[in-house]
Amino acid sequence: MKRFAIFFVLAALLLCFGGCGREESGENNKTSESEVAMVTQTGGTDDEGFNQSMWEEVEDYCGENNMTYAHYAPEEQTEEAYLAAVEKAVSKEAKLIIMCGSGLETAVYTAQSTYPDVNFLIVDGVPHDAQNNYAMGGNTASVIFAEEEAGYLAGYAAVKDGYTSLGFMGGMETPAIKRYGYGFVQGAAAAAAEAETKIDMRYMYAGTYEESDEVRSTAASWYKDGTQVIFACGGAMGESVIKAAENNDGKVIGVDVDQSGLSETVITSAEKGLGKAVENVLKSYGRGSFPGGSAFNYTARNDGVSLEIENARFSSFSQEDYNKVFNSLKEGSIELKKDTDVDSVSQITGDWITIKQ
After folding, report:
1. Do both 200 and 51 map to the same domain?
2. pLDDT digits 0-9 by tens, 284-296
3. Bridge partners for 39 per DSSP
4. Where is the signal peptide, in residue numbers (predicted)?
5. For the chain, how far is it from start to end, CA to CA, in angstroms?
6. pTM higher than 0.85 for the full model?
7. Structure confidence by residue, pLDDT tens digits, 108-137
8. Is the pLDDT confidence value at 14 over 90?
9. Cβ neighbours of residue 357 under 8 Å, at least 6 residues apart?
10. Whole domain around residue 45: which residue ranges?
11. Do 335 and 194 share a structural domain?
């Protein structure tokens, strides 16, 4: 009976620790406490993209300023798991918790009132409840990006570089991913209209941010059917698209950060200043002036989004071409539709884009 009781207690402890997710401490963390915590929606800190770019800023800033830090990866993508990760971070004395991804919006909404003495930064989202009632506490800051502008630059450049059969493959159908996609279509449509060239495009959301055989198979079928380049927009899912491109003589457009180092098939990347945004908030926090209650919007106007040019593999689209279109965005002479402006991608194709089924 005593052995059974001990087994039961151990099992319960294992279940608890599993539900709280995995913890990854920084190299300068010599104690069990971590002042700065980062909670990811999915994946680890080595995804060569969204998560990694922010984690590297946390490592750099905390390392230079002798702050302890840790990463918490929930075992599943649920609000309960995210809140369990937050609870674990708070138990380790976290004073600033960086929440990465729009899927964490409702968790932040709850956590900001549960832990009023903890500062929260949510990247790619704004806190709201399940009924979409938005509220940002005085201990919370929000960062969002004009992904439609980065997507526009990618679509415009691809068509200007001579591609006439494009694909967009997003991960989850979140606002940020939709903005990337809608911008991509509008950029391609603008360049096609200038060249008076018909463009066909495949467009879908894969329903995952992870690598999968299904994503790789779908991308391969697109390439075999004539798609020349796919904008792979969804975390590690993009690696499955890259593998399909490598096996089918296709090309890829990366996302969030410069992904040219992942494969020779990556011709450019639609970028947003994730690292800079996190760095700015970390610096404010370090000065004792955390910008609670503030929402920051990074756009072309404040150099918050861009297209990778230095390491691009275009055949004809030049730095001069890029500067011209980027400055048009920056000056506000190009108006784009976002996820909140239209119901579907078919409403923004114009006369020169055909969406293939």
Report:
1. no
2. 999 999 999 999 9
3. 72, 99
4. 1-22
5. 63
6. yes
7. 999 999 999 999 999 999 999 999 999 999
8. no
9. none
10. 13-145
11. yes
